Amino acid sequence: MSLSPTRSLAFCLSASLLALPLQVGAADGEAIIQQGGANPAAMPCMSCHGADGKGMAAGGFPRLAGLPEAYIAKQLADFKAGRRENPLMQPIAQALGDAEVAAVAKAYAAKPKVNVKAGPVERPKEGSGAWLALRGAWDRHIPECTLCHGPSGVGVGDAFPPLAGQSAEYIEAQLRAWRGTPAQPAGKKTKAVAAVAPTRSNDPNGLMRHIAADLSEAEIKAVAAYFAGLGESTEPFDESQHRLR
Amino acid sequence: MKMTLRLLSAALLPLLAAHALAADSARNARLDDQTQLPKAPTRPVGQTYFQPPAEADIPNNAFGELVRRGQDLFMNTKALAPQYVGNEMNCVNCHIDRGRKANSAPLWAAYTMYPAYRKKNNKVNSFVERMQGCFQFSMNGKPPAADSEVMTALTAYAYWMSTGVPIGKAQPGRGFDEPPPPKGGYDIARGKAVYGKQCALCHGDDGAGKKVGATSVFPPLWGKDSYNWGAGMHRINTAAGFIQHNMPLGRGRTLSDQEAWDVAAYVNSHERPQDPRLVNGDIDEARKRYHADDGVNLYGVVVDGRKLGQGVQ
Fold it and tell me: Closest chain B residue to A143 measured between Cα atoms?
């Protein structure tokens, strides 16, 4: 077993951080969020993901605050490796060192997790975004979103991120990234449009891609609007509370 | 007077004992699985499974309210009926899509098959008794009384969902449509590898599942919060059927017969809560009476030098 220079550096840094808690090193997550990484190409995260880490809906920039540490670290690794393609985010991820990725993931995970106030059982209308979120479309092998992403879409474990707290723009973009765009044959007045390959393939065990592939454009919009519309409770997440499905 | 009493009780004792035995067997009558029902027919090529009515068709009246209450209980059993649920399981964990999905023990295929005679307890069981078995074994709890609000609501839900199914006509899609046992048998070690690759993401390496707050999202597959040793799912053949048709979620029918059996064996080779039918604290006796002739299962079987069926609390 040998440590890479970066790893050794990170080890030394974290060792010294333990000794001197106030010392600010290259792998200070909060500093990266506010000022960027050591490599200038790693721009400050907050310039797109917001000062509070809750994202910016208009640009489709997702909320990172309160997302699981392992999930954020995996996404950054996947951007680097091209399993998740994005012209804006890939160069930034590539400019972050391993220790920086770990630090920034930790810093965002420590910020407040999204909370949706627990309410009574919802009764969705068939064909609505809520229906897809709470009932799924099992005739197409599509489980209800909340079955994996948790009641009210608050996220489950490290692999299933919260959908609550994200903007409709972001959720729609991700569903399309998994799905790609099917080719359109030429119509009477329109030219043929070539298929766009999926730009996201980093779903564990391929659990997400087939779901996105089977969703219509209208369904993508409706289900994204549903989760975006859940809003966020100002109360902290209550771990002792049941959440009804 | 004293003498008379003594005589009377002497005469009564055997009667009382006989009565206790009868009561015991009446209790046990609820405890068995449903394998005694004839196997459900396979779906004829080109035919679809029965389609239960749409949720929007639940009427807006007192009956409809009870049906909706049944559906709520079915999906949130632990949260809404905690006094009857002793683990972290909900009905919907084994009966996917609110009990509507074919080959996930759909309610519409079960409801019209009861009352049914079960060879094992030599008794005709009502649908309510069948559901009480779910509470006692799959949910390791205390069955609600037959005339309780919980049972009435769940029955109303199953009845409504079975609208249009002919009474007593076995439906394709009932139960879990188990794959045949693999020729070379199953292998627990191979099953562990399948589990690590396909199941651990949600159910955890420790099989404990995952929760959000107090609510179980991915159910525990073994350990104190999972189904007990008396649940139908403890049979490897039954679990193989459920797994092959329904797991991983949304990607059912992707595991081979061999993989389904192997991973079912791995899951069911772990300790779980004791079978409430345990006979005089004796696992071997309980195996002889309830498990030896009940599909393929590992209760009372020595695996890796340890006899399974100890139970966990």
Answer: B250
The pLDDT score that the predictor gives to residue A229 is: 97
CATH 1.10.760.10 domain residues, chain B: 51-175, 176-313
Interface test with B, best of A134, A139, A242, A244 (most B CBs within 10 A): A242
Q: Please, is B195 exposed, middle or buried when counting C-beta atoms within 10 Å of its C-beta (0-12, 13-18, 19+)? A: buried
Architecture of domain B51-175: Orthogonal Bundle (1.10)
Q: Is the pLDDT of residue B23 over 50?
A: no
Contact B72 A121 (CB under 8 A): yes
pLDDT tens-place string over residues B110-152: 999 999 986 555 689 999 999 999 999 999 999 999 999 999 9
Neighbours of B281 (CB within 10 A): 8
- CB-CB under 8 Å, A135 with B217: no
Q: Which residue stretches of chain A have pLDDT < 50? A: 1-26
What digits encode the pLDDT tens for the residues A49-106?
Answer: 999 999 999 999 999 999 999 999 999 999 999 999 999 999 999 999 999 999 999 9
* A182 upstream amide cis, omega within 30 of 0: no
Tokens in use for A212?
Answer: 């996105």
A129-228 in CATH: which number? 1.10.760.10
- Is residue B265 within 8 Å of residue B295, measured between CB atoms? no
Pick the CATH number of B176-313 from 2.60.40.1470, 2.60.40.1120, 3.30.565.10, 1.10.760.10: 1.10.760.10
Q: How many Cα atoms within 13 Å fall on the side-chain side of residue A83?
A: 12
Per-residue tokens: B13: 């004792």
Sequence ranges of the domains in chain A? 5-109, 129-228
Of B76, B198, B249, the CB nearest to A143: B249
C-beta separation of B299 from B234 below 8 A: yes
Considering only CB atoms, which residues of chain A are within 8 Å of chain B? 118, 121, 123, 125-126, 135-136, 138, 141-143, 147-148, 150-151, 154-157, 159, 204-207, 210-211, 237-245
Structural domain A5-109, CATH architecture: Orthogonal Bundle (1.10)
- pLDDT tens sequence across B58-113: 999 999 999 999 999 999 999 999 999 999 999 999 999 999 999 999 999 999 99
